[in-house]
Amino acid sequence: MPRSNTLIPFLCIPRPQTNLFRNLYTAYIMSFPFKLFLGFGGVLVGAQQGGSNEAKEDKFSPAQIRKERDESGFDPSCFHVCVCGSAGSGKSSLVNAARGIKNSKEDASAAPTGTTETTRERASYANPRRPKQFLYDTPGHGTQAVSAQRYYYDQKIYLFDLVIVMYGERLREDDVEILKACRKNGTEVILVRSKSDGHLAGYAEDNDVEIPSAGPGYVGETTQEMKETLERVGFENVDASQPEKPLVYIVCTENIRNIVNHQPTRREVIHERLLLAMLDKMEYMLVRPMKPAAKAPVVRTPVKAAKA
Ligand SMILES: Nc1nc2c(ncn2[C@@H]2O[C@H](COP(=O)(O)OP(=O)(O)OP(=O)(O)O)[C@@H](O)[C@H]2O)c(=O)[nH]1
Ligand SMILES: [Mg+2]
C-alpha cells in the first residue's frame, strides 16, 4: 500500500485513480482541519448569540434587575408595562388604545401600526390617563429581522413590572417560552388575545350563529385551549374558573380606546374593562403613595389643679 493511502481506511473513501480526481481528493482531505476550526467557531458564535439551550435558562437576580433598570432609565416610582408577542398581533394598537389614542400615521404621539412588519425598536409611551404608567411597545418576534430565540433577552423583558404577551391568531411556542422565562424570573405576566371583533365574526360564521350570541362559545373555546396549552407546557394550578381573573384577556383594541375615552363601544365587549382595571390596580399596588408613618399617640397626663 503506498504511503499516501494510509488515511484511506480511516476515511473509508477509496483513493481516486486519475490525476484530476486525485488532486481534488487531496484538497478535500487538506481542508479538514480548517472545517473543524470553522465548525467550532460556529458553535461558539451560536452560543454567544443565544443559540444554546443554556442561554434560555438564564435567571436574573433582583439586584441585577435593579441595576439594569437604573441603567435603562426606568423611573422606580413608575409602573413599567412591556407589550410583547408575535409580529402583527396588535401590540402597538393596544399601546395606543390604552392611552386613548387612535392608530394614525399622522399622529406623531401614536405608536406606528400597520399590516406589515412595523415596529422595529422598543419604545416607551407615557399614558396621559395614568401619569405613573409607561407602556413599552416592542417589535414582534419570529420575523426575519427579529429572532424569536433572543427576543426575551434583546427586549430585556425581565426588567418590567408587568409583561403582556399578545397574540392574535394562534399562541406560538415562542410566546410560551416568554411566559416560562417570566415565571422563572418572578415577573408578572398576562396573556392578551386581540382582534376579538374578527374572531367573533369568524366564530359566528363557523357555528352558524349571530355575532351577539357568539361570545360565550368563543370565550369558552379560547379559554379551554389556553388551559390545555399551559398545562401541557408544565404550568401548575391553571385556574380558569374565575371570571374576574381570565387566563387570557380577550379584547378588541377599538373597544379599549372607546372605554378609555368614555365613548360608546361599537363591538361586543369581552375583557376590555377587566384588562384596564387590572392595569390600574397593579399600578396602584406598586406605586401607591406611602402613608406617613403613624405618629406615636400623645399621652396627656391630667394636670391636677394646683391647690389654692
Ligand atoms: N380588527 C382588528 N384589527 C386590529 C386589532 N388590533 C390591531 N389590529 C390591526 O392589526 C394590524 C397590526 O396591528 P399592530 O398594532 O401594528 O400590530 P403589531 O403587533 O404592533 O405589529 P408589529 O409591530 O409589526 O409586530 C393593524 O392593521 C391593526 O389595525 C383589533 O383588535 N381588531
Ligand atoms: Mg408594532
Automatic annotation (TrEMBL):
Alphabetically ordered keywords of this record: GTP-binding, Hydrolase, Nucleotide-binding
PANTHER family in UniProt: INTERFERON-INDUCIBLE GTPASE, INTERFERON-INDUCIBLE GTPASE 5
Lineage: Eukaryota, Fungi, Dikarya, Ascomycota, Pezizomycotina
Pfam family, one: IIGP
Family membership: Belongs to the TRAFAC class dynamin-like GTPase superfamily. IRG family.
SUPFAM superfamilies from the UniProt entry: P-loop containing nucleoside triphosphate hydrolases
Record region (Disordered): 105-126
GO MF term set: GTP binding; hydrolase activity
Protein name from the UniProt record: IRG-type G domain-containing protein
Residue span, IRG-type G domain: 77-269
Alphabetical list of InterPro entries matching this protein: G_IRG_dom, Immunity-related_GTPase-like, IRG, P-loop_NTPase
Organism from which the protein derives: Trichodelitschia bisporula
Gene3D superfamilies, sorted: P-loop containing nucleotide triphosphate hydrolases
